[in-house]
Design brief:
There is one protein chain. The chain is mainly alpha-helical. It has 2 domains: about 45 residues, no CATH class; about 45 residues, no CATH class. The protein contains 6 helices and 2 strands. The chain has a two-stranded parallel sheet with strand order 1-2. The longest helix is centred in the middle third of the chain and has 17 residues. It is elongated, with a radius of gyration of 16 Å. The protein starts with 7 loop residues before the first helix and ends with a helix.
């Protein structure tokens, strides 16, 4: 969703004419164009709500089910890692209810 081809960073670079998509998350960038950035984030939020776990989520889940996965660290910004309910899942989320899963 973020760094994949056609993902968030690539779309941000095209839409806002920046060279590094991570800049989108800086205060100085946001402060200069709040309306446009807020609309972009709203689009991303809608996209995340429609997202479903993909093949990599399934593969990590299989490793966990086989007892081969010790830990899986994730920011889980889209909530997909929590959907597959891995026992080794350690969310690095700032949202307490997700970090507790």
């Amino acid at each position: 969703m973020f760094s994949t081809k056609g993902g968030l960073y690539e779309r941000a670079c095209k839409r806002f004419k920046i060279t590094d998509g991570k800049r989108l998350f800086s205060w100085s960038f946001y402060d200069k164009q709040r309306r446009e950035v807020t609309a972009f984030f709203a689009d991303i939020h809608k996209e995340a709500l429609r997202a479903a776990p993909g093949p990599s989520h399934a593969a990590i889940k299989r490793l966990d089910d086989m007892g081969k996965l010790l830990r899986h660290y994730t920011m889980n910004v889209d909530g997909l890692a929590a959907q597959v309910r891995r026992s080794a899942h350690v969310a690095l989320s700032t949202r307490p209810r997700e970090a507790a899963r």
